[in-house]
Amino acid sequence: MNYLFSNKDLKKLIIPLIFEQALVITVGMADTMMISSVGEAAVSGVSLVDMVNNLIFNILAALATGGAVVTSQYIGAKKLSEARKSARQLLYTVIFSSVTVTVLVLLARVPILRLFFGSIEQDVMKNALVYLVISAISFPFLAVYNASAALFRSMGNSQITLKVSILINLINIIGNAFCIFVLHMGVEGVAIPSLISRAVGGMILYLLLKNPKYPVCFEKTAFALDWYTIKKILYIGIPSGIENGIFQLGRVLVVSIISGFGTVQIAANGVANNLDSVGCIIGQAMSLAMITVIGQCVGANDEKQIRYYTKKLLTITYIATFLLVSSVLLALHPILSLYGLSQETTELAYILIMIHNGFAMLMWPVAFVLPNMLRACNDVRFTMVVSIFSMFVFRIGFSYIIGVRMGMGAIGVWIAMVIDWVFRLSLFIGRYLKGSWKRLCLHP
């Protein structure tokens, strides 16, 4: 068999993606520490807006995913002219979508915050509005960055996105430190560096993709909308966007349930979420790699390679996740001691992390990486329906039943999360084994 990706190709794709995911999480932790020095009203305003931002970011990222799937399939089919055309159409789509979202957010900024968070204190609202306005201005830049990064990954070139990610995260973290600790700015000191870093990242990747040396690039052609290609992008992007948006909304609802359990459980849940993200670094990177690899296999119309690389990528994910998560669990007591929590909070955080990471080693890859194989095979509606149903019935519904009604608190919420995983992976494995995805992506 003439394999599309050698082991060397996979290393060149996967390793930069892992470092990129680790960088995002590390910088996020540093940002949180710096923001805390601005004041409680600023911290509250930023944290509230970040929930709205994450919702929008995930929708924009889903459009980029749609473009990456379409472009990867064209590359696999050796149709480079079509791949370049899809790149242009993806760019038009994300710019139009992000500008529309920006205008809507700016016009409805107060109603949006009231809708999500009800009546909040005036100083918190003031900070939230400032942060939301500056964040909204950055949406088009972020959309261009996401789309361009997705196109580079579709070519198997994640080294460039890693280098640009390092640059923009340095701009962000140094800018935050300068604006907060030197200029003594408020939430503007957090928001403006993020805006600048996203603008720099988006422009760099856009300009790089104008270079014709890359197999997929933004060719110099007259502006023209190709609705056939745009529909293909949206066919993947819209269900993925709905799925991601509902998932983020579900997380907000779960946090609201935990907020009723008291300060100790809220703090323990926050710390546990912070550390759990470390255990998902490998899985998040492999999810992106799955889109590129399987997308090209679909374009080549090669079922054997689709199955071969699905198994291979999942095996790598399981081995790497086991090694990373085991290291975190072995060092868990020393790590938790750094947070300066009370003994009760520390003990609860330890239990929550053990629940998450213990089960993540067994379930997370097939529950969250395998679905990207299905998405790359155009099987997006199935993953969307399963994810939305599972989120509302198991993640939220059982959080209320076990956490609230049965009095198990945050532990009950995290048990509900594991039940959600079990349901997801059962259906996704069944879908893969049944082969229903073949009729959506393979032709005789």
Descriptive account of the structure:
84% of the residues lie in helices and 0% in strands. It has helices at residues 7-35, 40-76, 80-107, 109-117, 122-154, 159-182, 188-208, 227-258, 263-279, 281-299, 303-330, 332-337, 343-376, 380-405, 409-434, 438-441. Helix 9 (263-279) packs across helix 13 (343-376).
Topology of this protein?
Elements: H1 7-35, H2 40-76, H3 80-107, H4 109-117, H5 122-154, H6 159-182, H7 188-208, H8 227-258, H9 263-279, H10 281-299, H11 303-330, H12 332-337, H13 343-376, H14 380-405, H15 409-434, H16 438-441
Helix pairs in contact: 1-6, 1-10, 2-3, 2-5, 2-8, 2-10, 3-5, 5-7, 6-7, 8-14, 9-13, 10-11, 10-13, 11-13, 13-15, 14-15
Rg computed from alpha carbons, rounded to a whole number of angstroms: 22 Å
What is the general shape?
globular
* Number of separate strands: 0
What share of residues are in beta strands?
under 5%
Tell me the domain tally. Answer: 2
* H/E element order: HHHHHHHHHHHHHHHH
- Indicate the mean pLDDT: 87
Bin the helical content: over 70%
Structural class: mainly alpha
State the end-to-end distance.
Answer: 19 Å
Q: Give the count of helical stretches.
A: 16
Major sheet attributes: none
Uncertain segments are none
Properties at a glance:
single chain, 444 residues, mainly alpha, 2 domains, globular
Summarize the structure.
By secondary structure, this protein is an all-alpha fold.
